[in-house]
Amino acid sequence: MQSSRYATILEVPVSVVGMVGYAGLLFSAALRGEAGVYLGLLIALVGTLFSAYLTYLEVFVIHALCQWCLASAALMVAALVCAALGAWRLTKKER
User: Fold this and answer.
1) Three-class SS of residue 8?
2) Which CATH number characterizes residue 70's domain?
3) C-alpha distances in angstroms, 27 versus 4, 9, 67, 71?
4) From residue 58, how far is each of 7, 33, 45, 52, 53 by CA, in Å?
5) What is the pLDDT of residues 59-76, one digit of tens each?
6) Which residue in 2, 29, 50, 94 has the fewest CB atoms around it within 10 Å?
7) Which ranges constitute the DSSP H helices of the chain?
8) Are 2 and 55 in contact (CB under 8 A)?
9) Residue 21 burial by Cβ neighbours in a 10 Å radius (0-12, 13-18, 19+)
10) Domain total for the chain?
11) For position 88, what pLDDT does the model report?
């Protein structure tokens, strides 16, 4: 994947995009209250969708799987599940 034309987006390496996403998740975890919960949910959702797109490219276009990419995708899905549970608990608490 790193040597394919899909390795960058607007001249930015995909790995840097991922690092920014994970930094955003860490930042959202440091925030308190609704802002942190919903920011984390948004970042995890976008990250999961982007990971799904990259996994699609790996399987159907590039025909090569990257272990690091798959591990990152699994972590982002786990972050989405945790963020969704956090948002659900927050809305349940507000009732």
Assistant:
1) strand
2) 1.20.1440.130
3) 31, 23, 26, 21
4) 11, 37, 20, 10, 9
5) 999 999 999 999 999 999
6) 94
7) 14-30, 34-56, 67-94
8) no
9) buried
10) 1
11) 96
